[in-house]
Amino acid sequence: MTDGEPEGSRVARPRGRLRRLLLRITTWGAGLAVLAASVEFLYETSARRGDAAHHRAPGRLVDVGGHRLHLYCTGTGAPTAVAECRGPRVDVRPVRCSEP
What we know:
By secondary structure, this protein is an alpha+beta fold. 46% of the residues lie in helices and 24% in strands. The protein is built from one helix and four strands. The strands form two sheets. It has a two-stranded antiparallel ribbon. It is rod-shaped, with a radius of gyration of 32 Å. It starts with 8 loop residues before the first helix and ends in a 5-residue tail after the last strand.
């Protein structure tokens, strides 16, 4: 208040500097997070394509009521057993009809 400065001006300058510094840190941190997520997305996409081409599932896809189900047949004779995956468990039941 001595050199004609308004009251509180000395306190306002450090707060403004601190605020700008925190804004810069936050902006750079958010930018780096977006960059890292983008790189991870591109890597994961290319890796999945490569894995899908090299590790194909045995059997074939069959259209059942508008849904594509994976069918893998082995063995001969009766009864026919079907394994249906529903999350972490597998249901195995005898089938009463045959595939055309």
